[in-house]
């Protein structure tokens, strides 16, 4: 009886918390305890580019995120006008969020959440190209 109680207590302690549960929708890898924020953002970008095709693939998507935010999902421009992993214009974010997400995916609506920003950005680039992120340093060679 004591062994069963101890086993139940141990199982309860080791069970994932509610915050670690799998959410619906694409690209919900859990960040490992020893995984850096930047490594986790790479994983999110890889997942998104595996779901939606973008010009230049994962390499270009990663390059742009590095250039825009240094792979920091909470990056905010010095003037406060650009947010997150791909530095979306704050004023356009609500419309982009609505256009490129689905309620069933349980995505946080903040541009400062890496999963949300990666999915919105990659879906947008898949739909209309990388035009919003024109710039130097992320050319794709054949």
**Rough outline:** globular
What fraction of the residues are assigned to beta strands by DSSP? under 5%
Radius of gyration: 18 Å
Mean pLDDT: 85
| Main sheet properties | 2 strands, antiparallel
Number of helices, where a helix is a run of at least 4 consecutive DSSP H or I residues:
5
Task: Return the string of H and E elements.
Answer: HHHEEHH
* CATH-derived topology: Lysozyme
- Largest sheet, order of strands side by side? 1-2
What would you call the structural class?
A: mainly alpha
Protein architecture, described:
The chain is an all-alpha fold and 142 residues long. The chain has one domain: Lysozyme. The protein contains 5 helices and 2 strands. The chain has a two-stranded antiparallel sheet with strand order 1-2. The radius of gyration is 18 Å and the shape is globular. The N terminus is likely disordered.
SSE inventory with pairings:
Layout (H helix, E strand, L loop, with lengths): L1 H13 L22 H15 L5 H13 L12 E2 L4 E2 L3 H8 L13 H15 L14
Antiparallel strand pairs: 1-2
């Amino acid at each position: 009886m004591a062994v069963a109680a101890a086993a139940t207590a141990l199982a309860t302690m080791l069970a994932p918390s509610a915050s670690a549960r799998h959410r619906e929708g694409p690209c919900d890898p859990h960040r490992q305890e020893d995984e850096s924020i930047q490594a986790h953002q790479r994983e999110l970008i890889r997942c998104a580019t595996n779901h939606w095709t973008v010009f230049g693939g994962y390499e270009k998507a990663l390059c742009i995120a590095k250039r825009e935010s240094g792979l920091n999902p909470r990056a905010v421009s010095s003037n406060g006008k650009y947010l997150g992993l791909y530095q979306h214009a704050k004023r356009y974010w609500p419309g982009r969020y609505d256009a490129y997400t689905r309620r069933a995916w349980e995505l946080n609506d903040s541009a400062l959440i890496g999963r949300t920003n990666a999915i919105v950005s990659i879906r947008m680039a898949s739909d209309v190209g990388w035009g919003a992120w024109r710039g130097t340093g992320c050319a794709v060679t054949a």
